Amino acid sequence: MTVAKRHEAHLVLAGRGRRMAAVYAAMSPEAVKGAGVTISMRGGSLFLHFEADTVPALRALVNSYLRWLSMIEKALDIMENVSG
Q: How far apart are CA 9 and CA 20, in angstroms?
């Protein structure tokens, strides 16, 4: 029996305190057990750990989260400009 190799990627995003906490709050509900993504926050930095069975699946997962992160950052920029 052949055991499939899991492919992994790790991202650490150093942030600006409350802003990174807002990003974490927006993303963490989507990282459900078994989905291949773990999100945590330590010391003001956001840690993302991705796992997938294939490299293309890993790439797609990371790309999706990076696009989502970009959208959240843009929304926060807009909110800061409106309220600032």
A: 20
Best CA proximity match to 21, nearest among 38, 48, 37, 41 = 41
Q: What are the two backbone dihedrals, phi and then psi, of residue 20, each rounded to the nearest 5 degrees? A: -70, -30
Domains of the chain: 7-77 (3.30.310.50)
Whole-prediction pTM: 0.81
Tell me: the pLDDT tens digits for 10-52? 999 887 778 888 888 888 887 766 678 999 998 889 999 999 9
Residue 11 and residue 47 in contact, taking contact as beta carbons nearer than 8 Å: yes
Nearest 10 degrees: Cα torsion 63, 69, 70, 73: -170
What is the sign, positive or negative, of the torsion defined by CA atoms of 30, 75, 40, 25? negative
